Amino acid sequence: MNPVRAGASHKAFSLDRIAAIASNTLTELTRLKVFYVLLLFACVLIGSSVLMARLSFQQEFQVLKDISLGAMSIFTSLLAIVATARMLPQDTEDRIVYTILAKPVPRFEYLLGKLLGVLLLLAISTLIMSALFLALLYSREHAALAATNRQMAGLPQEQLHAALQSIRDSTFNPDLLPGISVIFLKACLLASLTIFISTFATSQIFTVVVTVFVYFIGHLQGTAREFWLQGHSAGWLARTFLAVVALLFPDLQLFNLADEVVAGAAIPLAIFLKTAALGAFYTVIYLLFATAIFSAKEL
Amino acid sequence: MIEAAVVVTGVTKTFPVPFKRRSVLAVRDLSLRVDAGQVYGLLGPNGSGKSTTLKIILGLVAPTRGKAEIFARDSTEVASREAVGFLPENPYFPKYLTGAETLRFYGKLCGLSSRALTKKIQELLELVGLTSAGDRRLGGYSKGMLQRIGLAQALVNEPRLVVLDEPTAGVDPVGSREIRDLILDLKKRGITVLLSSHLLDQVQEVCDRVGILANGELVSEGAVNELLAVENQTEVVFEAGSEELTRQIEALINTAGGRLIDCRKSRKTLERLFLDVTLK
Ligand SMILES: Nc1ncnc2c1ncn2[C@@H]1O[C@H](COP(=O)(O)OP(=O)(O)OP(=O)(O)O)[C@@H](O)[C@H]1O
Ligand SMILES: [Mg+2]
Fold first, then answer.
1. Could you give the CA distance from residue A240 to residue B242 in angstroms, rounded to a whole number?
2. Which DSSP state fits A253?
3. Residues forming beta bridges with residue B217, ordered by sequence position
4. Integer Cα distance of A199 and A90 in angstroms
5. A14 and B111 in contact by Cβ < 8 A?
6. Helix (H) / strand (E) containing A206
7. C-alpha R_g of chain A
8. Domain coordinates in residue numbering, chain A
9. Gyration radius (Cα) of chain B, Å
10. Positive or negative CA dihedral for B93, A125, A112, A194?
11. Which of B52, B87, B89, B165 to mutate to test the pocket of ligand 1 (most atoms within 8 A of CB)?
């Protein structure tokens, strides 16, 4: 018997435990072939955007950004769903969940650790893709600047400066980073949603199908709601109904700031913050839902 | 009075069957108590509810009725698992981790610091005889090695109670003898052990007390010595005797009013033979 440990008090919440689960989950996910396949695919798509962009003479940078951000958005969303959907069923099947929960680990921490593991994976892939994208953009910008310098060598300084400045403006605008962050946040939201669904799903396929379903509804629901509100006067019943729908099917269209980024338009800070807060809110809410169901679950 | 390590009171567990009205009764009105320092064996045929009982004790499954306690703390409290180590039946662990990394992971979950763990991991690997395999991935472990790393994992937090679900399943006789010795060693250190098995002679060797489950009910319970003693009989084993000696003994028994029931050549068990020929 060990008298020292016998009286040790249990910590209700421990970052060490969560970190251990998260890093273990990240290791597990990086062993997945599908991760590399998807990542490779996304990178190839981003790389090929350079070629496609050069075919469209005038709007080269627009096309490049459009394709790259689109690829990032689809890849991170897909990865969030696919990687998360298999986590809980896999752990249950391998009985790893028994060994983890037989330690003094609250179920909330287990889910949070798992989710953080996925979010880390998403963050890493977002970083890799952004690095590639920004490097391509940078090299194309340099090429364009050099070409302009050559072509307009004889023209007055002011005209040349203006031309160069317009190229700079259409490549690196400060809204690229908020745009990319929002793509990442959307993926976080989807990962959290997937964990929630997988706590009551009977199979991995079910989880993926339902999440993809929610994904599409989420993209359409903003339009549907506007249409609905136009036709009806919104009583409290209708409002409650809409609130529930909004909770279950987040308006994913709000996370499509990329279009504005591509167009070079500025994302107002207020809009960015609002979208970020919304993403964080849904991520937390779904995690809480997941905990509520998982805590009562028979393992 | 001796402290109770585990107390189960009136536990019933039914599992709903999906899409059907009826449900499966896994455990029925089960009560048992394991004293601190004891080795307790849960026996029973397949599907008799052994694993379910252990999971209820560990708070992995919620009982339909009744309650379970570990060291006077309700099993539904996370803190009750502070002093417990568990080895599930046929455990799998993350394949991509090495033996040492596995122990480190589970140690972290118990709130152990990295420094304390480095020492602890070496100790544990040595204890279960995996020192040389500690830096190999579990994907390449044999079944017996997995079972042993599982055992090491259960001991990482120096538990006061160790729960083992079929600890010797799939382990060869040498390995299961080692596991048996390990259990006896735990007992010597004052650690309570609760195990389930259907290998009866092994249970007989290590357990102080057994409970026998059938169809989810506890049908027999008690100290091994008492349960197995045959009233009014005594066995005598001697060496280098002759047939003449045997006859004399029989005559002696008869004159004293006793009755000789059986007289045969001693045989070694198959296990003994196996150990003798494989351990050379
Ligand atoms: N999650 C579950 N859902 C439905 N039924 C279950 C579940 N877990 C166990 N059961 C049922 O409960 C009964 C007892 O199962 P349990 O696993 O406890 O038996 P056991 O004694 O451990 O058997 P074994 O020796 O084969 O390991 C069985 O009839 C089983 O089908
Ligand atoms: Mg069992």
1. 96
2. G
3. B214
4. 12
5. yes
6. helix A204-231
7. 23
8. 15-296
9. 22
10. negative
11. B52
For residue B244, what are its two tokens?
Answer: 């003449």
Q: Report how far residue B8's alpha carbon sits from residue A292's, in angstroms, rounded to the nearest whole number.
A: 26
Strand partners, A123: none
How far, in Å, CA of B37 to CA of B40, rounded? 9
Residue range of the domain that includes B260: 243-278
Q: For an interface test with A, give the residue of B3, B51, B78 to mutate (most A CBs within 10 A).
A: B78
List CB contacts of B191: < 8 A, sequence separation 6 or more: A1, B37, B159, B160, B161, B162
- Where would I find the H helices in chain B? 50-57, 99-109, 114-127, 143-154, 173-188, 200-206, 224-228, 243-255, 270-278
Cβ–Cβ gap A20/B82 under 8 Å: no
Cα–Cα distance, A167 to A276 (Å, whole number): 29
Give the β-pairing of B84-87 and B23-35. unpaired
ipTM computed for the complex: 0.83
| B184-235 pLDDT, tens digit each | 999 999 999 999 988 777 888 889 999 989 899 998 888 887 777 766 777 7
B39: enclosing H helix or E strand: strand B39-43
Q: Quickly count: other Cβ atoms within 10 Å of residue B38's Cβ.
A: 20
At A128-140, the pLDDT tens digits run: 999 999 999 888 8
Distance between CA B11 and CA B32 in Å, rounded?
9
Q: How far apart are CA B250 and CA B264, in angstroms?
A: 13
The H or E element spanning position A92 is helix A87-93
Q: Is B267 exposed, middle or buried (0-12, 13-18, 19+ CB in 10 A)?
A: exposed
Ligand 1 atom closest to Cα of B44? 21
Amino acid at A264: G
CA angle A134, A50, A256 (to 5 degrees): 60
DSSP secondary structure letter of residue B137:
B
Q: Are A86 and A204 in contact, with CB atoms under 8 Å apart?
A: yes
Place of tokens 């990319």: A180
